[in-house]
């Protein structure tokens, strides 16, 4: 059909494609949730089951095993789709499809198993592999920000509370606040990954009754079967008790840590957007990048905005497993299935995107020290008043008299700033007042911005040395990857 007239049968652009995959996510995370990875894993799980059953004495031949091994990735997706349309059952459609290319093994594929043997166990493998993809990316973001924090550890900048000017901090110390949140996320993701167990070989309602029948009441062989398949799939432990599925609270734990990561990145990128407005710090801006189709001068923080936009989506996804777990009846109901197909994949894809984007941002952050210094000078006179009072008292002055003098001069200076749009001239007024003559020679040192940053420099050094760098040690071999965004 003509453009705009409707979908063509072979026109991929005439059908909706999730931008999470088509526009943003990395190829490796896209593959992790692909049909090829899913159904290839199903076949491997059927192979593991057959191998383990054979090793424990069931009549399965080497020839059958070899036939299955030879066809692990030989998936006829068209045939599988046709079978599913006919059978209305995705697992049995793929059992038939696998059996079609493994005629000798057809009778022992899926022997004793239920659909969740391949479905849930594959999900757990994919979740584990998803964490293994995210963790090095998160570690790289932390590493890049740690380099930034170290570089600017001693650069004073105006702090903000309530988004109002507050005591000075340093650019590096503020960055450490971001890093600390991400370090918590790194620990949470590692914990969630390591807490994952295999569903294993449990049967239709989790009792292993079908396998107990296969092994003629031999409980030890059923337990050994579970251990063997669990190890083949790369897990150290399996859940001892399950219903038909593994507990859907596991999905809550998984998406909770990803949602928490989303919250961290949203906060970081919001700070960067606000700093960009102040012209103190900017994210990378390419030579040919266009900020606005109407306003050529614009330098919009579009990467940070993208992170915030997608992070909001990530944060909301945890509501799905919360509701799903709460409405599962007894050993299992199928109203979890369609929801999980969407929310689990989208959570990992979204986390992958915002981590890649934040790495790109952190590798190219631009700092404007002169702008930062000018803003400090606009606010520093008011902040220095306490130091000035202390210096006057040390020089023999009266604390209350000095306080009143500075109060009057501060209000006059504030009126110049707010009513006339002028610069803060408090220090000039203090210099001009004879009352302050005892400390005139010390005013410059009293106004040194570095004297207002407390232990920020020392805190940055200690934090990076004692907490950040040790945490990154396991990921050192993967630190060299740089991110260049396609869009």
Automatic annotation (TrEMBL):
Keywords: Lyase, Purine biosynthesis
GO terms, molecular function: (S)-2-(5-amino-1-(5-phospho-D-ribosyl)imidazole-4-carboxamido) succinate lyase (fumarate-forming) activity; N6-(1,2-dicarboxyethyl)AMP AMP-lyase (fumarate-forming) activity
Reactions accelerated catalytically: (2S)-2-[5-amino-1-(5-phospho-beta-D-ribosyl)imidazole-4-carboxamido]succinate = 5-amino-1-(5-phospho-beta-D-ribosyl)imidazole-4-carboxamide + fumarate; N(6)-(1,2-dicarboxyethyl)-AMP = fumarate + AMP
EC top class named in words: lyase
Pathway: Purine metabolism; AMP biosynthesis via de novo pathway; AMP from IMP: step 2/2; Purine metabolism; IMP biosynthesis via de novo pathway; 5-amino-1-(5-phospho-D-ribosyl)imidazole-4-carboxamide from 5-amino-1-(5-phospho-D-ribosyl)imidazole-4-carboxylate: step 2/2
Gene3D superfamilies, per database record: 1.10.275.60, Fumarase/aspartase (C-terminal domain) (1.10.40.30), Fumarase/aspartase (Central domain) (1.20.200.10)
Entry's family note: Belongs to the lyase 1 family. Adenylosuccinate lyase subfamily.
Function per UniProt: Catalyzes two non-sequential steps in de novo AMP synthesis: converts (S)-2-(5-amino-1-(5-phospho-D-ribosyl)imidazole-4-carboxamido)succinate (SAICAR) to fumarate plus 5-amino-1-(5-phospho-D-ribosyl)imidazole-4-carboxamide, and thereby also contributes to de novo IMP synthesis, and converts succinyladenosine monophosphate (SAMP) to AMP and fumarate.
Protein name, as recorded: Adenylosuccinate lyase
Organism expressing this protein natively: Alligator mississippiensis
